[in-house]
């Protein structure tokens, strides 16, 4: 949006699946593979947890999952570029790791997957961050967001061939079956849809951060865009006190599974008031709520918001009319479903075939020369929104309009002069006898005289 009053900070954290294979057999454990992967990064930063010159954070998460967190973005274009740049950064680490493995006489090829489940049934996440103005009724509003998060998999799901009590079937979401709570301060023990740990990485008197951890990792850039556009617009409704409280569900955990398992969108959901609706009907209510609010406020929408809103509406229409050709180059689950259906028909395979399971997994391979989705994208069968040159720039350059520029410039200068520094989302510190430290609590500030002086000191 062009109006400065509706600027928002966005961020996206992605945990990647990691394995090393040779001739169909695993040659290294995940821990061993991760050590090779982060060898260069660890040498450069004395840690496998580092902030980079583009303002992002790259680290090794629990379970030896590489995790990339984008810099703070107030533009959805920047967010898409930063997210895509993360894949390139990790692919560079993979290339270096392959050389190190060859030098060490270790056979195998490293595979990096942008997905949410492994063959052992473990799940790892994709977390969205949205900066909100602090308000006293925040906790009370969260229950009204949950039905939206439960039904948005109709247009944000990554798609998965899933074994259920009713057999093997195609589902909307990879994460839905791994959710065990609606709202919680935990991220692992109860695995909620929304994490409420109050950690804004900003002035806590002014802001708090909405941390959404129910989403799937998306390969298609339009899917990532519509995920953030829809939430951003719905949060405008929430911040205006217009979010309806009568849409809450009787059982959120059962509902998210039921919605995922019924790709017709007609799963029956019972609301807290006893009303029964389909997933599609409930999703449509949230869409209409947003459209009516946007119309009433006469927002000046950015081109990204216009496209995202249109894609949101078109996705629901595609499901309602059973015409997924309307979205099967833009929405992850529809792209994958089309691919799997065509392949299964051509080779006379059922969904429980091991070949289909392999196809499902390889869809998420981030290697641009091997990953099935990336090959579809290159051939024009999946829509790309970013420009390759912009993504290359985003590998090393932070967004220019947020705090990330201060951090990125500081890190780049420290690397240039060989000075050891300590950095997190809000702190910039020179690790020498002076221990000079700057706290940057305004995520919207891309200019700060104190930081300029600190860089000059370097």
Task: Report on this structure.
This protein has 458 residues and is an alpha+beta fold. Among the domains are: 136-187 and 220-359, no CATH class; 404-457, no CATH class. The protein is built from 15 helices and 18 strands. The chain has helices at 30-37, 39-45, 76-103, 138-151, 153-156, 221-239, 252-261, 279-297, 303-320, 332-347, 354-362, 372-378, 388-394, 404-417, 449-457; strands spanning 10-15, 17-22, 25-26, 49-51, 57-61, 65-69, 109-113, 126-133, 160-164, 167-171, 181-184, 192-195, 207-212, 268-270, 276-278, 421-423, 427-430, 437-439. An 8-stranded mixed sheet has the order 4-5-6-1-8-13-12-11. It has a 3-stranded antiparallel sheet with strand order 3-2-7. Strands 16-17-18 form a 3-stranded antiparallel sheet, covered by helices on one side. α4 (138-151) runs parallel beside α7, α6 crosses α9 (303-320) and α14 packs parallel to α15 (449-457). The longest helix is centred in the first third of the chain and has 28 residues, at 76-103. It is globular, with a radius of gyration of 22 Å. The two termini are 37 Å apart.
């Amino acid at each position: 949006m062009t109006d400065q009053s509706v600027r928002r900070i966005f961020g996206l954290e992605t945990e990647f699946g990691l394995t090393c294979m040779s001739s169909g057999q695993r040659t290294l454990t995940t821990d061993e593979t991760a050590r090779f992967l982060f060898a260069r990064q660890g040498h450069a930063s004395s840690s496998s947890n580092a902030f980079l010159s583009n303002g992002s954070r790259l680290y090794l998460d629990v379970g030896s999952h590489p995790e990339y967190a984008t810099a703070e973005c107030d533009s959805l274009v920047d967010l898409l570029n930063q997210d895509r740049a993360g894949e390139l950064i990790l692919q560079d680490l993979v290339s270096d790791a392959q050389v190190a493995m060859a030098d060490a006489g270790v056979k195998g090829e490293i595979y990096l997957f942008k997905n949410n489940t492994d063959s052992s049934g473990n799940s790892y996440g994709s977390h969205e961050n949205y900066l909100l103005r602090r308000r006293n009724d925040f906790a009370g509003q969260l229950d009204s967001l949950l039905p939206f998060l439960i039904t948005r998999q109709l247009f944000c799901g990554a798609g998965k061939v899933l074994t259920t009590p009713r057999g093997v079937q195609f589902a909307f979401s990879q994460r839905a079956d791994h959710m065990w709570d609606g709202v919680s301060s935990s991220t692992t023990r109860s695995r909620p849809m929304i994490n409420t740990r109050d950690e804004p990485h900003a002035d806590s008197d002014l802001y708090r951060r909405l941390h959404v951890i129910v989403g799937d990792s998306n390969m298609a850039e339009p899917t990532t865009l519509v995920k953030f556009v829809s939430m951003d617009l719905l949060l405008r409704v929430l911040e205006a006190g217009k979010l309806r409280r009568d849409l809450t569900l009787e059982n959120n955990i059962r509902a998210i599974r039921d919605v995922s398992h019924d790709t017709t969108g007609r799963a029956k959901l019972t609301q807290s008031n006893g009303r029964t609706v389909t997933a599609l009907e409930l999703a449509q209510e949230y869409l209409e709520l947003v459209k009516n609010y946007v119309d009433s406020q006469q927002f000046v929408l950015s081109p990204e918001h216009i496209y995202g809103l249109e894609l949101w509406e078109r996705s629901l229409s595609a499901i309602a009319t059973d015409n997924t050709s309307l979205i099967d180059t833009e929405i992850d689950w529809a792209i994958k479903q089309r691919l799997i259906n065509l392949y299964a028909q051509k080779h006379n395979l059922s969904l429980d075939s091991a070949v289909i399971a392999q196809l499902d997994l390889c869809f998420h391979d981030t290697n641009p020369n091997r990953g099935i989705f990336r090959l579809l994208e290159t051939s024009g069968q999946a829509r790309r929104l970013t420009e390759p040159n912009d993504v290359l720039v985003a590998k090393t350059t932070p967004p220019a309009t947020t705090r990330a520029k201060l951090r990125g410039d500081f890190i780049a200068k420290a690397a240039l002069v060989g000075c050891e520094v300590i950095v997190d989302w809000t702190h910039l510190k020179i690790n020498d006898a002076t221990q000079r430290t700057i706290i940057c609590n305004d995520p919207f500030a891309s200019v700060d005289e104190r930081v300029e002086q600190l860089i000059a000191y370097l």
